[in-house]
Amino acid sequence: MTLAMDTPWWLAALVLAVLPLFNNGIQPSAYPWLVMLPIDPVSQAISVLLRGGAMAAIAALVLGLAGLHQTGQSRERIGYGANIVLLLDRSNSMDNTFAGKTPDGADESKATAARRLLSDFVRQRPHDLLGIAEYSTAPLFVLPLTDNKAAIQAAINATATPALAYTHVSKGLGMALDMFKDQPLSGSRIVLLVSDGAAAIDPDSELQLRLAFKRQNIRLYWLFLRTANSPGIFEKPQDPRDDNAGAMPERYLHLFFSSLNIPYQAYQAESPDAMQQAIADINRLEHAPLHYLERIPKRDLSGDCYLWATGLLAMLLAVKFFEVKR
Amino acid sequence: MFSNYLKNYRFWLLSLALIAMLMVFVRPTQNQPRPIYNYTFIIDITRSMNAADYQLDGQAVSRLAYVKHSLRGLLAKLPCQSKVGLGLFTERRSTLLFEPIEVCQGFNDIDAALANVDWRMAWAADSRIASGLLNTLQMLEKLDTHVVFITDGQEAPPVNPRYRSDFAAVKGKVQGMVIGAGGLQAVPIPKFNHKGEPDGFYRPNDVPHRSTFGEADLNPEKIQGYNARNAPFGSEAAVGSEHLSALQEGYLQALSTEAGLHYHRMTDVEALATALQIPEFAVQKTTAVDVRWQAALAALLLVACVYGGLRPFPSWSLGTGGNNYLQNRKIL
Lengths: 326, 332
Fold this sequence. Notes:
The structure holds two protein chains of two kinds. By secondary structure, chain A is an alpha/beta fold. Helices cover 37% and strands 21% of the residues of chain A. Chain A folds into two domains: 2-72 and 298-320, no CATH class; 76-295, von Willebrand factor, type A domain (Rossmann fold, 3-Layer(aba) Sandwich), CATH 3.40.50.410. Chain A has helices at 19-22, 41-66, 110-124, 149-158, 169-178, 203-216, 249-258, 272-285, 302-320; strands at 2-4, 69-71, 73-79, 82-89, 129-135, 139-146, 188-195, 218-225, 264-269, 290-296, 299-300. In chain A, the strands form three sheets. In chain A, strands 6-5-4-7-8-9 form a six-stranded mixed sheet, with helices on both faces. Chain A has a three-stranded antiparallel sheet with strand order 1-2-11. In chain A, strands 3-10 form a two-stranded antiparallel ribbon. Chain B is built from nine helices and 14 strands. Chain B has helices spanning 3-7, 9-26, 63-77, 107-115, 129-140, 249-259, 269-276, 292-308, 325-331, and strands spanning 29-36, 38-44, 54-56, 59-61, 83-90, 93-102, 146-151, 176-180, 187-188, 190-192, 198-201, 244-245, 262-265, 283-290. In chain B, the strands form five sheets. Chain B has a six-stranded mixed sheet with strand order 6-5-2-7-8-13, sandwiched between helices. Chain B has a two-stranded antiparallel sheet with strand order 1-14. A two-stranded antiparallel ribbon of chain B has the order 3-4. In chain B, a hairpin with a 2-residue loop joins strand 3 (54-56) and strand 4 (59-61). The longest helix of chain B has 18 residues, at 9-26.
C-alpha cells in the first residue's frame, strides 16, 4: 500500500495548518486579573482539542486538494483467472483462406477468423490477465499482461492490417515466455500460439526455449490453422527422407513441444468451425478455480479527506455556539 | 445573546466554510467541454534510428531511445479520454500494434508497449520513408485517428526522383503530423552482428549510395559508361555519404506538405506536447470534470482567515477585549 498525490505541490499549503497554534480562533474575553484563574486541566484539554481539530481540518482540506490516493493495492481472490499470452502469427499466409486462396467474400481469411474467435475468447474470460505478442520474421511486443480488456481488443483489431513477412516462431516464443518474467507466480501461465505454419527452430534457441518453458511453468496450447494440401502436425511423411525439420517444420515443432514435458495440447483446425471448437475446448480446460491476486486500481482518498474536513468544521462551528460573551 | 454570534466574524467564516464543504458533496462534478486527442504513433525502427545524436541525462542516446522516452513523457500529459495507438515502420510499410487505447486507463499498457519498441522488431530491412508514409496513411485512412509519423527521413537506399510516391490519393483524407527525429549533423550509424551485439559502425562500402532501380533520372549523355539496357546508371561506382545519417528535415517537410500533414522537429517533451495538442487535432468532448477543488479551496481560505486572524472587513467585530490578546493566550 502506498499513498500518493495527484498534484503534490498543493502540499505546500500544509503550512496553513500551523495557524491554529498561534490563534485558537476563539473570541477573547477581557478578564481583570489572569493570575487569579486557577490552572484548569479540562480547559487545557479543550483548548488542545480545538487547536488540533482546526489543524486537522486544514490538513484534511489540503490533502483533499492535493488528490490523495492509494496505489498498489491488491486483494486475494479465488476465481477463474489465468495469465494468458496470445502469440499470433502475422506472416503473409495468414491473410489467405483455409483453402490457401485470397479471401473472396465467401470464405474469410485465417487472420479474420482468428480475430473474430479470439475476440469472443477474450470476452468470455473477464478475470484473466492477457498479453499479446506477435511474430513474423521478427517478434513484435504488443501488450504486456494486463486486465485492460479494451486494450486487448484494440490489439486484436489491429491485426486486421495487412500481415507482414515470414514465420520465425522461435523468436516469438522467446518473447512470449519473457512476458511472464516479472509476473508473480499466481494463477496458471498459458501461451496460446495461433499460427498457420511453423519454422525449424535453430539449436541455440531450442536450448533456451526448453529452459524457459520449464522455468516459467508454462502450459502451452498450439492452435494450428492448417491450409488445405499442406502437411499437418500429426502427419508422417511417406518418404522417410522427408522426415526432417526442414521439410516438415510443423511436425517437428509439434515433436519439440511434446518433448518439453510441460502440459501441452495441439489443435489442428482446418476450418473456422474447427477453430471455434478448439478455442471452446481451451476455454473449458482453463476453467479450474485459482488463487490469484487482483490488482485494484488507485483508490481516491480525497473524498474521505473532504468528509473529515467537513466533520471537523462542523465541530468547530458547533463549539462557537458554546462561546460565552461576558 | 444570539446576536453575539452574528457579530463574530469567525462564526460567519466558519459557517461559510461549512456551506462550501457541503457544496463539495452536493456538486462534486461539473460537465465541461474539454479537448481530447486521438493519435496513432508510427515509429521508424530502421537502422538509422540507432544513430546516437540525442542527449538524455548527459548520455548520448539513440534517436529511437529518445523517441520512446519522449512519447512516454507525452502520455502523461495527454488529458484523460484521449486515445493513443501504436505502430512500427520499417522497409516500405508499417504495422499497427494496437488501435488507439484510452490513455488514463491504459497508461501502463501503452507505456510498456512503448518501452519494448526495439529496432530488432523490424521484419525486413530497407527504409523507404515516402512509400512507408503513403502506406501508413492508406492503412489508417479508415481509422478515425491522427497519424503521427516519427522518422529521421533517411531513405535507404536513396530514392530515384523519377519514382516518387504520389500522395494525391490520400491528401486531405488523413490528418496528422510528421515528426523529424535526429540531429542536423551527419553521424555514423551503429552496426550490430547477428546476435544483436554492437559491431562498430556502417562504412561507405556497406550501403548503397544510389538507387539502381528502373531508369536513371540523369541525362544519359552525362552518364559515364551508359547503356540503356545493361547499365542505365552507368559504369561508375556510386560514392556518397549514405553510411552517415542526419535528420533530412527539408525532405520531411516537403513530404508532409505533399501529404497534407504538419511537421515538427523533435526536441523535447514539452515542445512535442505543445506541437501535438493543437486545436486542429482536438475534439471537444463534454466530460464530468471534478470541481470539488473549487469549493474545498474556498473552505480552506475561509478557515485560514479564521485562524490567521484576518477579518475580511475591519469593521467586523473582533469581540470585546480584542486588545487582551496576551491575557487570552494565558487562559487557554
